[in-house]
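Appendix B. Extra example for self-study. Work through it before the problem class; the solution is given directly after the inputs so you can check yourself.
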Amino acid sequence: MRENYPLTTDNDGKSVWKFLRDEFKPKGKLFTPFNIISVPVIILGIILIVIRFWKGIGAITNLTQEVPWGLWIGFDVVTGVAFAGGAYVLTFMVYILNMKKYHSIVRVTVLNGFLAYVFYAGALLLDLGRPWNVINPIIGNNFGVNSVLFLVAWHFLLYMIAQLIEFSPAIAEWLGARRIHKILSGMTIAAVIFGITLSTLHQSGLGALYLMAKEKIHPLWYSEFIPIMFFVSSIFAGLSMVIFEGTITHKVFFKQISEKNHHAQNGIILGLSKICAGTMFAYFFLQLLVFIHDKHWDLLNTPMGYWYLLEMLGFVFLPMILFYYSYRRNNVLLIRIAAIVTMLGVILNRLNVTVIGFRWDAAIRYVPSWMEFVVTLTVIFTEIWIFRWVINRMPVLRDSPSWAKEDN
Amino acid sequence: MTINRRKFFKVLGVTGAALTIGRELKAAPTGKADIEFRGVLYDSARCKGCHGCEYDCADANNLPVPEPAKNMAPVRKTSETKRTVVNEYNTSKGKVFVKMQCMHCNEPACVAACLTQAMHKTQAGPVIWRGEKCMGCRYCMVSCPFDIPKFEFHSPNPKIQKCDMCYNRLKTGEMPACAANCPNDALFYGTRRQLMSEARKRIVENPKLYVDYLYGEHEAGGTCWMYLSPVPFKELGMKTNIQKASYPALTKGFLYGVPTIFVLFPALLLGIQQATKKDNETGEE
Ligand code: SF4
Ligand code: SF4
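Solution. C-alpha cells for the complete assembly:
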C-alpha cells in the first residue's frame, strides 16, 4: 500500500510531478498473453482507422446504401452501451435502495461503465462521415430536437459527466486530495440520480432510434415497444456483465481485493443472479405479449423464425431458468455460465435488430469486413488497457485509504 | 428484498406509463400538411423512358454524366452519383417506365432523424441537405422509408446525395430541371393541391388507362412527389408496404415521454433514497 499522498503531504508542486511521473510508468509484467495479443491488434486497428479517415468509410467497411449502420453502431455502440447498463443498475441498488452489500463492487462497475461509454460511444465518432461537424448539435447552433439521435447523443455526453463525478472520489483518493475528495463525495447522490434518469432514457432511446425503420427491420424484431425492450434487457445485460467482469477481475487482480470482499463476492453474485432472473422473466413475458399481439405465427416457420426462437428460448428463457436454478442451489459456477449465455443473448438481440434483421430482405446482405472486426477489437482492447491502468493505481478494487472513509 | 423489487417494478411501471401517455399524443396534428407545398406529379402512362431527365439532373447538380441509355440496366437504384433513375418493368400492360427520386415527404423521416438539422423541409416543399451542418451519421438513411439518401462511402469528405427538387432553381422561379425538360409531359410541377386535382382529372377522364390510385397522396403521411400509373404500383417495383401515417410520429411517443421521465424520475429516486436511508438492512436477504 502506498502511504504518501503527495497533494497533502507536500504541496510545493515538485512531488506531485514526480508522483505522476512514477504513476505513468507501466506496472507489472510486459509480456502477458493479453498484451501479446492486444498490442498487434491495436496497432493494426490504428492503421485501419488512419485509412478510414484518409479514403472514406467505405475503404474499410462493407456498409451499403441500404444498410448504412453496421457493426460499429450495432455492436460497439448499441450492444456496448447495453452492457454498460450495470453501472446505473448498481448505483440504483446501492445509493437509492441502500443495499450496502453491493457497495464493494460499485466503483469498479462505474469505472467500467464510464470507460465503456467513452470508448463505445466514442466509436460513434469513427462512424461519422463528417466528424468535424459533430460540434453542431452540441454547441447549439443546430438543435435537431425532434431527433432521437440528438437525445441519445446528449444523454451519452451528460451521462459520462455524471459517471465521472460518481467515480471522481477514487481519483481524489489516488492523488491524496482530501478537501476535493470531500466535495466530490458530496456530489455522488445527485450524480447517481441524474445518471439513472439519463440511463433509462438513453438505454430505451437506443431502441427508439430504430422506430422509424419500421419496414426495414424483420417484423419479429420490430415493434413499437423496442425502447422498453432495450431498457429492460439493459438491466440484466449490465448485471451479467458485472458478474462476468467480477469473475475475471477477481482472478487477475486477486492481490488487490481484501479478504473480506473476496468472501462477499459469492453473496453478491447470488443476489445479482436473482435480479437477473426476475428482470429476464419480465422481459421474456413482454416479448411474449408483443409476439401474441402482433400475431406473427406464420413467420415462425421460416429461417428467421427459427433464429428468433433460438434467441428467445436459447438465450433468454434458458439462462433465466439457469439463473433461478443456480440461485436456489447456491451454485456460483452455474450463475457465471448463465451470465455468459445471457450476454451472448443480448449481443444476438441487439445485432438482430440492428444488423441481422435490418434489411433482412436486401438483395446484397451486409456482412462486416474483417477490418470492421479489427477496429471493434481495437476499441475493446484499448478500453481494457485503460481499465487495467486505472485499477492498478486507484483504489477501485482495493479499499479506500482510511482517511477517505468518513466522507462516504 | 421483496420491498426492493416492488419498488423496482414501480419504477418500471412509471416508464411504461410515461411512454403510453406519450403515445396518446402522437395523433396531434402538426399543421404542416396545410402549407402549400410544391411538388411534381409523375405520370408513368406518359413516360416513354427516354432517360432525358437523368441527364438533365446530372447536369443541373454537377454529377457525373450517366452512361448512354442503351447501356443502362432496366432496373437500377439511385446512388451517390445518380439522384434519379428511370426504370423499366415488364408489366401486365407491357413495358412501363417509372422514375425514382426523393419523394419530398410532407413530414419527412429524414428530417426528424437528423440531429443537426442538416436535412431540412423547406416551406416551398423540397427537402434539402445542408453540408455545412451534416455530421455524416447516416441516421437519415436508416430512417427514410424510401431508401433515398445516399452516402459517399468512398470519400474522406463524404456528402449525402439526394434529389433536392432543384431547390436553387425553384428559388429563381424555375421548375426542377427534370420537369422543365421532359419532352413527353410526364412531369407536372405545381402545388400539391394542383397536383391532386390534375391527377384526379386524368383518372376521371381516362379511367381505362389509370389504376385509380394516387401514390404519394397518403404514403408516409403524404408526399410532394406523386405518381400515376397504368398498372398496380407493385408491378413497378414501388414500395407498397409504406405506412399511410407520418414516420416521425413513430418516435413522437418516445420523445414526448422524455420530459415526463425527467420530471418524475429524480423526484421518485430521491424519495426512495430518503425512505431507504434509515433502514440500512434492506440490502440483506
Ligand atoms: S423520401 Fe426519404 S429522403 Fe425524401 S423526404 Fe421522404 S424521408 Fe426524406
Ligand atoms: S447524415 Fe447528415 S443529414 Fe443525415 S441525419 Fe446525419 S447529420 Fe443529418
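Self-check: Residues B 102-105, 108-110, 127, 144, 146, 148-149, 162 surround iron/sulfur cluster (ligand 1) (CB under 6 Å). If your reasoning did not lead you there, revisit section 3.
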